[in-house]
## 1
Amino acid sequence: MLITFLIVAMLILSGPLASALKVTLSANKPNVTAGATGAAGNITFTTWVNLSSPDAYVPIQRIYLNLSGPLPRSFSFNPAGGDIQGYATGYPNEITIVANPSDGFNSSNYGFGPGIGYGYNTGITYPFGSGYGYGSAGGAGLTPLNVSYAITLNTTNMYDGNYTARTNVYAVGNQAVDFLSTNSVSFEILPRIITVPIPGIDAGNTTESGLIQTPVGNFSFMIVAGTNASAVNLNVTVQVNPPTNVSYQINASTGGLGAGAMPGLYFNYSIDDPTWYDNISYIHMRMYYNQSDIPSNVVESTLRPARYLSNTTPASWVKLECGTCPRTLEVAEDGRNVNLNASGVNETGNYVWANVTHFSSYGVAGTVTATTPPSSGGSSGGGGGGGGGGSGENFSNIVLKERYELQIFKDLTTTYSFKNASNPLIYVKITGNVSAGMQTVSVEVLKNTSTLVKIAAPGMVYKNVNIWVGTSGFATSKNIKDATINFKIDNSWLTSNGISGSDVKLLKWDGSKWIQLETTIIGKLDLYTVFEGKTTSFSPFAISAKVSEINPVKTPEGTQSGTTPATTGETTATRTETAKPPAASTLTYILIVIGIVLAVVIVVAYYRLKKKEE
């Protein structure tokens, strides 16, 4: 009895061990075809959440599935697998969750006590303070909790292209923590093929397709027969990646595709009987674009179809510009010359058009301007930030630009994910103070210091980026309750410069000076390390290391950190980085050793006393 009492006392004195949280992810198939319905269009992800050594609670609120790719998405649900958020408006069955019922998070493993969670993937221990959560047993310990969720994603209404899925568990105590999965899963949505039958056409007559709509882009065509045209099947794919075997190569002499191209918009036309071309006069094609996707350094009036010339050496792109029309293009396909009769752009209807004599693969491209166009609301300081159009940044200083439009809701978190491998930003999460509808987040990755600031950022700068949200004046604390910026740094850069994760800071230009934002290391992967910065406004930013010239500015905490995720989405709270402590303190080990020695002494003394009495 005495020994048991001593052991229990030592456990109480030593305090609870951290509950280690590990998250993994897998998928049941590597690809689906765009537009497929039913099971053929579904991908099922299985995420495992393992809570081992659960002597201290972890305040798990939400489980997330984040998709980066042509159509970034972020879905979430509660530990029971309910309250699903993030599906597209009007498509509540876009994602379904089936939780493993045998050993899920429930009242039997939910309790009050000290909260200490160890991130398996980050190597960091996070103290949550005292409160309620899963895994708490008053120091007595529980068996490991292994919970699985089957997450079925219906891809029918998603864009084609390459995606990466990652999951994380979101926990909130006196700080907010994302426990990332140890791995990500790549999958592909293959381009949909649209087959349009073209009937036989009498000599001199025409046939029109009408507007054909796809999630990526719309198109139409009109066939003008010559002597006559027999029936034929036209196969069209509209996709975010170039068609198979089509490169991004630029034809420098004509402008090609290049920097002026409309991102993620390709049309590939083919027919099953090439002799059909012999009996037509020309094909009038229209390819529609989204005005918000026009590159900031391209004037809309310069947009034209860009045709891929596969039979030239080398194969290349040529913009269908009619300096002189009609003209023969620099290619012969199927033994026939390909002619361009006319081309142009309809800025009111948002489509480019061309009259050609042969189908092929097309993109949409414009001419890059040499001067900065008028700003449509960009800001040179903190706070506002431009939405659509030019930001005011010098075009020659922009390496790449990514922009996405999603809805921002009051008290819910919207995740903007970025797909370009050269973009150091992974995602921007915004929790609204208001329901603002569709808002564009635009990121400009820069060669050097932004031309919108007065002085270069201090420290050893890794990347300079501009981040703009909404229209001018929108991105303020009045409209944005909380925002986090997740970014990555190549491990090779950190190693070669002798930089540790704690040296890295996210800096923001506030209109007159650089300020240091609260920055946390999230995790280290094979190729790069992930960090998170907190802000409530957007402007030029810099990712820098070994910053000593400026003092950090603490981001105000959200006003609803005590509310439940079921009503407010992600709860805003302050996250701080904590160095990884040992699983138990030195005092713990000393007490355990003393306890064991004491127990042995008591047992020996007891038996000696017993023997003496006999």
Note: The chain is about 10% helix and 45% strand.
## 2
Amino acid sequence: MEKHTFRRCAAVLAACTVMATAASFGTASVSAADGVSKWGDANCDGMVDMSDCVLIMQALANPNKYGLNGTDQNHLKEQGAANADVFENGSGLTSGDALSVQKYLLHSISTLPESYKQGNNPVESTTTTSTTTTTTTTTTTTTSTTTTTTTTTTTTTPTTTTTTTTAPKSNFPDMGTPMNSSATMVEDFRDGNSKYFIASDGWENGDPFDCGWYKSQTSLDNGCLTLSIDKDYSGKYNYAGAEYRTNDFYHYGYYETSMKAIKNDGVVSSFFTYTGESDKNPWDEIDIEILGKDSRKVQFNYYTNGQGKHEYMYDLGFDSSEAYHTYGFDWQPDHITWYVDGKAVYTANQNIPKTAGKIMMNTWPGRGVDGWLNHYNGNTPLTAYYQWVTYDQKGAPNGNNNNNNNNNNNNNNQQQNPWEQNNNNNNNNNNNQQQNPWEQNNNNNNQQQNGSIKDYGTAMDSSATMVEDFRDGNSRYFIASDGWENGDPFDCGWYKSQTSLDKGCLTLSIDKDYSGKYHYAGAEYRTNDFYHYGYYETSMQAIKNKGVVSSFFTYTGESDNNPWDEIDIEILGKDTTKVQFNYYTNGQGKHEYMHSLGFDSSEGYHTYGFDWQPDHITWYVDGKAVYTANQNIPKTAGKIMMNTWPGRGVNEWLDQYDGKTPLTARYQWATYNKNGKSGSSNNNNNQQQNPWQQNNNNNNNNNNQQQNPWQQNNNNNNNNNNQQQNPWQQNNNNQQQNKTTASGLVDYGTPMKSGTTMGDDFRNGSSRYFIASDGWENGDPFDCGWYKSQTAFKDGALQLSINKDYSGKYNYAGAEYRTNDFYGFGYYETSMQAIKNNGVVSSFFTYTGPSDNNPWDEIDIEILGKDTTKVQFNYYTNGQGKHEYMYSLGFDASQGYHTYGFDWQRDHITWYVDGKPVYTANQNIPKTAGKIMMNTWPGRGVDEWLAHYDGKTPLTARYQWVTYNKQ
């Protein structure tokens, strides 16, 4: 039983003084045989008033003094305890009984008891009531005025009724949508407990929150979670507020709650996600806030790295303080859509948060924000109610409240929410409709269900080079490590006894080592054979516990008479909403990258994989490419392994292991495909594909398969549908032949794409979107001014030239083209021939900065004339650079046209050469829209970077076209 302090009840007294001397308001009298003299009359004085609430709370807070055997002369008696059991009658005295009495005195409920314990409610009860009307005149005298008030009080006249009593768990109507019980995380407060949330206790955030948050202001014993505002009788703060927050972090997906808000000037009832400095993260937040000054509206807002100012006020069309309604938001990499009662009502698309956060609800009064909340009048207690909270990593349900079930709906002109699919139209024939690449397709008919563990991942590739399906109860390619150990930091030995194949999966468990040889017994499965370049994947459910690791990896080393080469997927039990990628090449590691999953990997099966090629490793989660490494890639074939183990001496990495056992990770299958990620011939029509890969088989009947929006399908007559391709190479069967352009240069690149958001084809001899910089300069290291005279449309291209500046203003004259408009996230591409000469640069990039009243954000493709067989990628976020990466092209960029591009998204930038992704950056990504630019210039004082410029002129770079696609 939760014990509440006396101050909550004392505060209620201030709000209910007018009733302190009131007679009973229709309380039921029952016979002495029922053991109750008057419902709610805890002190047995024949009346029901605030003194009964006080005694109930005193008895709970200090039973030695005020309980049934208390020392105080006014302690609770047995008769009073029977009278006071008015909330869930039959369950004994709780703080809920005091609340029921308060609600009765405030006319929120009309009779007592409020409810009965399940199985204890009587079928019928006889209620005797009376009605009389009296008029009372009260005279109040102050120092300046005398006020006479006439009050009419109505009580009930004698009647006898027979009623059937039923009571829901909470006393408020529920006008919202039902709870999604199949969501990734489900917290149902109606059960009287919380699995995922904790109460903030003793915390405060300063202005404008005029309160501290206390656990005592929360309750779970009223068939819901209550978060209350009260006075802070400790004197530490003016007021005591309430807050509930998760321990875990959650990322992209759909968040929803059932809430009844507070109606009172100056206060807020909320539901939101948050992370910030306290979590060693940027301040990212997504808000649903109901301002008590007008509970018929709800405010949506969000912060990205501390930048807010995205408030939007939505008219609800109802009073949120009068009933439960559902409020939610669908957070995806490129948008947030807010929902009310299952209906999408507002979408934001700019500068979307990207950092996983905790889920929170709080109630608080404001200070110094009267213009926003109105002035708080100090009224207490004030309570918001929450029935449940859910999070679904699959995103918002598609059309979950669309009641138009007409299977032949022909209203083609009906405008839809662009972020929602209408799944009720069973005859939708738009098989080629592009899907959101960030969402899973939940109509996967091949989705597995292993007992009570849900499978959220992609289907097993049954046509892979090596397929090990542990669901069959056996293993052909793997063996269990038995009696092996690796020393620190692995605080265990690996035993076959810790493995099992008899539960429809492979289980790898951690337990105590009862032999005494090691502290703990771990489990490991490994292949006998060695595997090299290709795509590796498993379906795994990880362990959630501090200090332990669940893994999938390749390894070879000294035990195989090889160098130590390893590629890792490791889920650390301390935070199973993240996965760590790493690799070792000849013993050199330090390539760790932590990726936020957006779900809890311990709550179901997900697929984890990596595509290992000679020049890169790309890791995948549930079929989606999430990270690429390009430096010092391993080259030695290794064994495929999975293991589970507790760590020793690595508390900073794993947190300290608490010794809890047994702990089990589960694996459904493991596959290896020597042809890489795109080599799969999986016929699962609804399987989500890697959005960065081409689908080269035009005769494939997979009508719902997601296509790479940036690439064309060029194999119109390719009949070899089952041939597996290297995902990083183009299929040249129907590749456009390299052609000689008007300038005599050969075009080796990919064709200019049609249908893009912006396309400027300079081969036409003009530009629609770009202008020439004229008379501008940027100082060092740009040893030139930019002049329009150095630009020309000639020989089917835009030419940007470097020449001497004969005006004498600068040493040299360079050239620059830039857009008037600003462009944000999307795919940028150009066809360019670069300059070959020491000391100069040919470029294609986006830029914004102080000249635009913006932070300095920039994304670069720069070819240095000193070595035109390479290209340098770089970017700046709010002026922070140092992200240079030099990529070897495999050709000379000055010898012909090639295409260079980059895909800029909120959580990554991927650079492309001739349509091939070659490098990805994931840290501190720019977020401010910029202008698209190309320029040519000689450097000064940067000889180490560019080599010394010899002053040779003229030098010319050529550009055939530029495209931008915002998809």
Note: Confidence is low (pLDDT under 50) at residues 1-33, 123-169, 399-451, 679-737.
